[in-house]
Amino acid sequence: MTQNTISLASEVNLRFDPAKYETLKISLDNNIIQVKKYSVIYVANPVRFRLEQIGKGGKPQRNANPYVYQTMNIYLSEYADRNMNAPIIFMVHNGGWKASVVEDSVDEGIRYSGNSNDDLVGAALKAGYVLVDAGTRSRGIIAEDGSFLGKAPAAVVDAKAAIRYLRLNSDLIPGSTDRIVITGISGGGALSVAIASSGNSPDYYPYLSEVGAAGISADGTSSLRDDVFATIAYCPITDLANADAAYEWQYAATRLIKSDYYASLNGDYQFLPEPPPQGPPDSQPPDKHKYYDSLILSPQQKEASDRLSEAYIRYFDSLDLKREDGTPLTADNLPEVIIELVTAEINRVLVSGSAHPCVPDLGEDFILTIKRGPGGPKKPGELSDDPPPYNLAIKNEWLKLSADRKSVECVDYEKYLDFVASIQALKPVPSFDQGDVSQGGESNLFGTPSQIYSNFTAWSWDHNASKGDGIGKEDTGMSFDEYLETTDGKELKAQLKLTSPIPYLSSGSVKTAPYWYVRHGIRDRDTAFAIEVELYYMIKSQPQVKDINFKFTWLNGHAGNYDVQEAFSWLADIL
Which domains does the chain show, CATH number per domain? Predict the structure, then answer.
């Protein structure tokens, strides 16, 4: 739980003031409309954070005030204002599970489209929905006193607190709090599914109480709900406790083939093709040897990959999942299920007709549009300084079509994974708990407020070689299992549970969202396909769930909001 919060309960009134708003004029489908923008701090005891932080891409970021991580913007278009029954689109961000300041998702003078496939804001405004954009604490931010108060489960706690603020003020804010739809991408997708799976769980009450969330009384009881109606989640990076193991289960063989091949060249790489454009930082890296050397696994990495892969088999089989016909879904037949989902998506594309030419037969080329830099416009209608995208041709060695090219004849699973890894380099071993915060991964999401980071999996803890960081077996003298029995270890165990949907989808004791729309790109290597299948079948097993719309989407990488019209059509149907 967080500490050193500064109480502003006497200064912050959690009752919404309908008179305090800014009027924005925007273009929506070439029509000028007005949008009311409200900015509110949604907790009574917000944490004060330093104004100077490290922002996206490791660049310095100066925030406007110390409360931007616990502030949300509420946008009411002319179509939503005074409509107390409108759905509420609740946007969260948190790419990579990083902290997110409140964003200006609607801006003065910007052009939006209600008919675009990649403009969620425009579609929400056109549909007459209330739009909410919430900042949330998470990893990587530093409080005024120098502590790390964005540790898990802060992002989930803050999103729940913002939902409670909306419910506290449901008589004053247009929109129906029985129709809250939470949506996000990557870490935001993971946050979305964590919220959708854990509605009203008392596990979060102590954390909610500490930040002064609405509806939490001094005796620890709750008078408000924090469940949601639906989620639209893209490529969720979730189940972090098992994500490393799933990644190695998925890609161990692919890694080994590439590692052995590059090692056999003895560092003579000059005749190899250029490295994948999204692997190194540039399409023509200055040090090609350094890139290829990074693909060669050390003996310790090979051992880690083997042990993690074995651990995922045990974990996945323990979930006791069932396929549609009632037979067990196990690690043995999981590749078959992944192929079925990939095949279903390709068949859908072939039947649709319009996208038929982009599905190559065996031996033909995939033509992929690759973005460089952060990718895409900052906002609809705003020009980007990023380098232009370019097309990349990759020979199809894994997908065979029927003779009439109207359906899939077969998919080669191992070659499919090699295709994914050839577009963007695989993550290192381990992928998420890398044992040193400077290397990346999600390690600084976990630990105490005084720790920069903590290992959160057994392999990384027991093999942590960073002397003096106070983490791991070498520094503490305790194995991971032994550490989990300590006070700090029990809190780490709670952090892992409170950020994952899986424990709550299997508990049956919370309010699960009845409607789920989940997407993961068919060439997305940022987490294992196994993790998404695991989530899908856990959702399917819940009696409270009325509809789960899940796809591996055709030729998409790690991205979201690329099928907004389809998502909003689904939402309109369930409404």
Answer: 22-236+511-574 (3.40.50.1820), 241-423 (no CATH), 437-498 (no CATH)
